[in-house]
Amino acid sequence: MSRIIETDADVSAGAAWLAGQDPHLARALVATGPLPLRRRPDGFSELLSAIVSQQVSVASARAIQTRLLEAGMTSEAAVRAVSEVDLRALGLSRQKARYAHALASAAIDYPALRTASDAEVVRTLTAVPGIGVWTAEIYAMFSLGRPDVFAAGDLALQEAARVLYDLPERPRERALRERAAAWSPWRSVAARLLFAYYRVARQRDGIT
Question: For the chain, percent helix, then strand, then coil, each to nearest 5?
Fold first, then answer.
């Protein structure tokens, strides 16, 4: 890979480039201040956590993840060694227990993903039941540090774009992906900026 986002300086460089290209993004950056790095670990545990977090509250996800950690369910071998009934006893739904088993059995070469193309990362991960494009793109952005990936299906990014660009309605995934093309080669930093701007807009409007 020619560039990986590894430090705050990398994020700052991308933010400065974006602000120089688009006055709306420049205005957003003034409102948000310096952007967070938001790097996460890569590997099985991170993707299992993503599955656990789907369609539940943050508090519920944390509680389930704590139970999984206490039960030692942090590796592929450990998850494969128990039944779906055992996983459900730890708080997973029937569907998520099935997804957890599928992920544990997928034999993903996580170190190889670090140097795979963005498209190959998404293709590899979305081949696993329970992992969609959004999850794969978030993983590429924050666990692999890819600089030019944009999770256009994210509702927070869509709403932030609506507010920032004063659009009549929230852009759909395709429309936002087309708009984000102008932010290459720093689309992952643009996502960080829009995530931060979304929080600023909610606080400004009194939404918690």
Answer: 65, 0, 35
d(CA 194, CA 196): 5
Asked whether residue 29 carries a pLDDT value surpassing 80, the answer given is yes
Break the chain into its structural domains and give their ranges. 8-39+148-204, 44-143
Place of tokens 């739904």: 93
CATH topology assigned to domain 8-39+148-204 = Endonuclease Iii, domain 2 (1.10.1670)
Domain 8-39+148-204 shares a fold with domain 44-143: no
- Alpha helix (H) ranges present in 114-180? 118-126, 133-138, 155-164, 173-180
Confidence of residue 205 (pLDDT cuts 50, 70, 90): confident
pLDDT score of 1 more than 70: no
Q: Which CATH class is domain 44-143?
A: mainly alpha
Q: pLDDT digit string (tens) for 99-127?
A: 999 999 999 999 999 999 999 999 999 99
Q: Which of 55, 54, 108, 59 is nearest to 79 (CA)?
A: 108
